[in-house]
Amino acid sequence: MRNGTIKQILLITDGYSNTGEDPVAMAALAKEQGITVNVIGVMEKDLIDEQSTNEIENIAMSGGGVSQVVYAQNLSQTVQMVTRQAMTQTIHGVVNKELQQILGSETKLEDLPPEKRGEVMEVVDDLGETSNLDILILVDMSASMKSKLPTVKEALLDLSLSLNARIGYNNYSIFLFPGKKKDVEKLLDWTPNLNKVSAIFPKLTAGGITPTGPALEEAVKHFKKKRSTRGRLEEYDERSIEESGL
Amino acid sequence: MMRDQLRNQVCNLKSGTAISGKWHSHKYYIVRKLGEGATGVVYLAQNENDEQVALKISFANMSVTAEVNVLKQLSKVHGKVLGPSLLDVDDWAVKQGTVMLSFYVMEYLKGEGFLPFISRKGEEWISVLVLQLLGDLEGLHQAGWTFGDLKPDNLIVTTNPFRLRLLDVGGTTQHGRAIKEFTEFFDRGYWGLGSRKADGAYDLFAVAMIFINGAYPKQFPKQEQPLKQLEKCIDEKKILRPYKKPLMKALKGEYSAASYMKNDILNVVKGGDKKPQSSSSTNNTTYATTGRRRRVKRKKKRTAETFFLLISVAIAYFVYFFIQVW
């Protein structure tokens, strides 16, 4: 049996978008296409202002994901927690739909007595462990992020350590915004191995604008590209696994 | 915003607040807050029979269900009391029934935290408590579970007799799956010394770090070469030095079972009584070599057996051959 794939965008930012499309609308578009948008706001000593915090929450809400504002030193733990939580949420949503089909339109997991809920939760847990995950990471490269970049890199490596411990397969891709020439720049194409990132992760920011909306739009497109080129690859992969007798 | 408000409310329940369950209709009265974690708050509460219980309310209802599942699994681990026993699971309706908060009730373990206990009673208690912990972990591991988020905050020492108990079982994970909850200082992944796939050795790494934490209550951040750094930390403390061998083995993930680590630590404790410190390491090596020698002997015995068998088969064949020729 083949397991489903969960699609996520993880946006790491420290401020308010100031150019291009509305990121909240772009997140809603992503959600419509089955991609969850999670947002992490990174602070240093400076607190993030309310306007930015609101935007962070709104992007995640309309993207069907999870948001959290944290100090840079807690980034590693937060990145993995947010990703996990969002996965569970997605699976939870799918399971709820199934339940409604079986038990009637108004039934939710919370309406079951605690004992039954436990059994369903075991299924949710199993799916969280075995589902495949495609995660596209969008990193804010505006000037204020410069001092936080080493921490971001550490956090991403740490995330791959957590996710690769799962039974399901993972695919990572990293985009930066703003890029050197364009609004968005691809740093890493889809790969199951995030370790490469430590060598190529930039130390300098591109500065200036924060085009969060266009970055999200580009990220969603990249998921589509993947689907068209990877369909064949996946088949090939499965065949080769079968042939090797595993 | 609304989620934050709710979280604030749940975190600051006043003493005397009544919590009644929707499904089993038991009532609990809040006494005081015991602790707060990433997923919820634990309160000391009183049940209808005026008994003290620990009550955990979560901000994320699903995590309650997941934790309850683990507690139920743990109660099946034969013969050992690992975590606190589970008493009740229910939902609490707040805001005129518009919001449901899941909670569960467990046995209230009264005792002292691991680190406060050590600093009050003395460092020699570290090895005693760690030995107890390893005994408990052996049972858990044999049942196919990894505790996961093993750290001093999740350990409590109950009195009469002094006994170490595990508190927060939320991170318990089946072997072979990804660790769900961890704390960096006690996580082998953070130190670059292994994966976050659950197995017995994951917990044993944490045990070694708890041991080290006992001698370094303040902890310390990771440096460039973590294993060398940790080795140095062990060398620099008198209380840790005799245990260097088992600690390093656990840090490197070389123990396949908690009982082996327990044995090695026990050997240091025993050896330490007669000749302190320096001899304990030689003690360990003799232990290791006798093990090897025994294996060599067994191997010799096996070759002898094969040889004997071969000879007798040959003789039997010759006898058969001669009978045929006659």
TrEMBL record, chain A:
Coiled coil: none annotated. InterPro entries: VWF_A (IPR002035), vWFA_dom_sf (IPR036465). This is VWFA domain-containing protein. It comes from the Bacteria. Residues 1-91, 134-246 form the VWFA domain.
UniProtKB/TrEMBL annotation, chain B:
Residues 28-326 form the Protein kinase domain. Residues 278-290 have a biased composition (Low complexity). Residues 271-298 are annotated as: Disordered. ATP binds at K56. It holds the Pfam family Pkinase. PROSITE patterns: PROTEIN_KINASE_ATP, PROTEIN_KINASE_DOM. The chain crosses the membrane at residues 303-323. Keywords: ATP-binding, Kinase, Membrane, Nucleotide-binding, Serine/threonine-protein kinase, Transferase, Transmembrane, Transmembrane helix. InterPro entries: CDK, Kinase-like_dom_sf, Prot_kinase_dom, Protein_kinase_ATP_BS. One of its GO terms (molecular function) is ATP binding. Signal peptide: none annotated. This is Serine/threonine protein kinase. It comes from Priestia endophytica.
